[in-house]
Amino acid sequence: MSVTRSFDPRKLRRYLPILEWGSKYTPSTFANDGIAAIIVTIMLIPQSLAYALLAGLPAQMGLYASILPLVAYAIFGTSRALAVGPVAVVSLMTAAAVGNMALQGTAEYAAAAITLAFISGVILLVMGFFRLGFFANFLSHPVIAGFITASGILIAASQIKHIFGVSASGETLPERLISLAQHLGQTNFITLIIGVAATAFLFWVRKGLKPLLISKGVGPRMADIATKAGPVAAVVVTTLISFAFSLNDHGVKIVGEVPRGLPPLTLPHFSPEIWSQLFGSAILISIIGFVESVSVAQTLAAKKRQRIVPDQELIGLGASNIAAAISGGYPVTGGFARSVVNFDAGAETPAAGAFTAVGIALAALFLTPLLYFLPIATLAATIIVAVLSLVDFKILKTTWGYSKADFAAVLATILLTLWFGVETGVSSGVILSIALHLYKTSRPHVAEVGLVPGSEHFRNINRHDVLTVPEMVTIRVDESLYFANARFLEDYILDRIADNPVIKHVVLMCPAVNDVDSSALETLEELNRRLNDAGIKLHLSEVKGPVMDRLQKSHLLQDLSGQVFLSQFAAMKALGDVTKPVPPETQSDTAA
Amino acid sequence: MSVTRSFDPRKLRRYLPILEWGSKYTPSTFANDGIAAIIVTIMLIPQSLAYALLAGLPAQMGLYASILPLVAYAIFGTSRALAVGPVAVVSLMTAAAVGNMALQGTAEYAAAAITLAFISGVILLVMGFFRLGFFANFLSHPVIAGFITASGILIAASQIKHIFGVSASGETLPERLISLAQHLGQTNFITLIIGVAATAFLFWVRKGLKPLLISKGVGPRMADIATKAGPVAAVVVTTLISFAFSLNDHGVKIVGEVPRGLPPLTLPHFSPEIWSQLFGSAILISIIGFVESVSVAQTLAAKKRQRIVPDQELIGLGASNIAAAISGGYPVTGGFARSVVNFDAGAETPAAGAFTAVGIALAALFLTPLLYFLPIATLAATIIVAVLSLVDFKILKTTWGYSKADFAAVLATILLTLWFGVETGVSSGVILSIALHLYKTSRPHVAEVGLVPGSEHFRNINRHDVLTVPEMVTIRVDESLYFANARFLEDYILDRIADNPVIKHVVLMCPAVNDVDSSALETLEELNRRLNDAGIKLHLSEVKGPVMDRLQKSHLLQDLSGQVFLSQFAAMKALGDVTKPVPPETQSDTAA
């Protein structure tokens, strides 16, 4: 009998999905992954530069964030098609978090962004190891939708200054718009022409190029992919113009010197003070990044009946962010547009991500000198066109029609994010949606019911002509009973019996009660005592199996003044003299 | 046609319950209320002094808090028997809140307590006018029980120093015990004898007097009331001893000079700085006080089939606290012990409270000189004996047996309150119980079900021998679908279909789904699309009426790849080839 614990390869595979797909890798998979990688690389170069700009970081940090993190995800991630790297919303959140600590353009600013990636990576890894992915569930859909829309507007507003070639600042929408208006007098018109032209071109590529290509006989999938190369075309053309006319001498801001070479080895700060300042932001960035990433991965995996493991995704994204932190990058997550391109281009395994990393590394080694003359306005145009697809006010309309509480959560999240910035916006949204949920369930639907004549069914006495017995009140509650609504039910019942000396029995009909927590149990025991003091018996009917199992662990059932009935009809037969119930006024019309 | 709005007396009666019961007041009601008032006055005098001491305030403020607030409650309150005034837990919370702002014994300390009562009164009034009483529901029973138990221990620990006649300080239990241990060397032994004797006497009165009186032929109700006079006896006897032997010359701390006369007119601070410092504490005090008060009032009202109006109780308690603030008092609420005495002594209307106020006012006018020699140790004994009845560890045992989540909430609230003080304790408890509730509902009970042979019932495939069809998976979810659990369900279903090419239909069976919020709707729409991409149809069965009404406002039903079935049996007949289902292994044993 050996006491050494045997090595369990399945356990290792849980944490290293690469062992799973790597063992089945074939030349044809390699070819497909390689083609996808080339297409994603072309798309990712301008995006990486632009999002670094949005985060207030040097352009090369965007490239660095698109190399090692992709390799880390390829090893630890479970999605076959997710493409990680810098994304718009996380870049905006990085700027908001780091902007409180240092001035843009300083070394401390960049170091803080690196530290933010590291903390975010640690948070994601810890959540992954302890399987805490469910925390992300507390971000309701209205909050996410409102937040993404507001972020899109904030991001677009932050880039308008680059289109006009002016300086402006501010973190919230009013600050940004006021600062922009104050500086409009300094507009550089050459910059404006480039910016507007690039924006118009990119919008046309997005809307008009695909139909054009299809009408020329290009397949819809290839046409889709080709439209993603629009930003590259804009970058190449405007860089050439900028170079040819030395536009930087005419006040057009350009990217300038981008250091050539592979990512440097960097280390985050470990000062407790800096960690405590960045921790809250890192949690928000981690959770928002995780939610977006899993949602994309889930969508793509379902198309091929593949599965992703959300808790392992936390580890994949955590490893990616730590990889970003040690290689001069900043917080990364799975991007929607590039993952779809990756999937459509035929990526079969996470190796496509690793190959993309090679492509970006080559760009960092050889292409950076060519970016010298790239106008900042072109990158701003890329960002604006990309993020405006995030802005979606339809959610306001759909939630308005479906649920006013959800509408309130969306509207509040949008307004708070625009007015007070991303962190206040999303935190308030989460708190609000939890509060609204508790409020809704704290006032459950409660109906007094009676017997439908000629049947064994019971219905709301206010909506149907039903038989009732004056000595007996039957209350059906359509919600689990827990601390937030237990008192509501108690008030309802005590109100119903107040000043009504005829009542002898109260039956609580529980077919929709999925749980009874300690507070509700205490309330039921209290209600039982109080009704008993008033000479009224409390009965239960149609209690579900699991709820009954749990109640049997308490004293309620043995203390109950009344009985527990399997069906409400049995309760009425036992308690009410059903041969002489009070008929509804219209009974003669409806009785069977 | 008149445009002036007519006066609606019912509206006035909503806010002034006194108009309701006052119009029916009779001489016999007056006699009953008067007798109850005398008994409550006798009980309230030592309590008022003791709780002022506990709050760190001069003794007379306890009396002042038992005069005008009672009159205010008599006008605005809805409970016929509730006796308001200073109570132990709120006194402790007052000490914790005000202790951060000023030193005990200073004029600023007293002024801060007055301001706290005022802010608390405003909060209660605002909550009452806007009918926000449901906020109190978020205090779950485990949190309240844990908090009250921990408060009882903290209060008792805070009084031990008076029994030993030493100085000690500290807000949390460890601080208090360490400080006490450091000062034990300075014990005054005469004080200790008085303190221990008073404590022992009061415990005996509580446990032993009632059986004794009953054995002597006293009725149980009178015996009950007589035991409440124990503290008065202790006060009288120890004051006489203290006076006879001039114990203050031997180092025994006495109450000393208590100003004689009616409550002074006082005004709270209105500085925004002080308000912002006290606001959080005032919210906690208001809500804790409200919850305790309503719970007592509810219990007593139910015995006579009377009703209380929780939102009007907020107004009653708010008016009481504002009355306390303008008459030199401090935060008040409905007390459990004294309300029960009031009820048992025969109080019929809130007028009993007003008569009690007259009694206390007479005491403030004429009795205060007699309190000069009252030993502080006697008051401490009164407090200790009173609060130890609050300490109840049974809640740990009952919640352990009933629900581990609720047990965790109780234990955390107790430990956090003892270790970090009342405010941190109760706030953490509330957050924890909300988080645990969300966690529980975020992982709902989900079962895959099959047909019970020979019936139309469906049961869990893991627990019963049921018929299933390989092409069709039926998932029953036993919880409302909302943001915190929607993704769980989606993951569950996507996991179930992954790598299983046989499945053609997924049926979501919804008899226990009471609500589907926007997030869950979005998830269902997404799930529908994803399953469709994988060639699987999504169906719903047994959807409740109100949920169906709501879903009809969305696009889900028209986009649904499958159908909505009224019953699961109909779904199985339509989708599965029920003539050839796969039998359970033991079917031959169980088939009908």
TrEMBL record, chains A, B:
Compartmental location: Membrane
Membrane topology category: Multi-pass membrane protein
Residue stretches in coiled coil: none
GO biological process: transmembrane transport
Residues annotated as domain STAS: 462-582
InterPro entries: SLC26A/SulP_dom, SLC26A/SulP_fam, STAS_dom, STAS_dom_sf
Keywords, in A-Z order: Membrane, Transmembrane, Transmembrane helix
GO CC annotation, single: membrane
TM segment ranges: 34-53, 59-76, 109-130, 142-164, 184-205, 225-245, 274-302, 314-332, 352-372, 379-396, 408-436
Protein name: Sulfate permease
Organism: Celeribacter baekdonensis B30
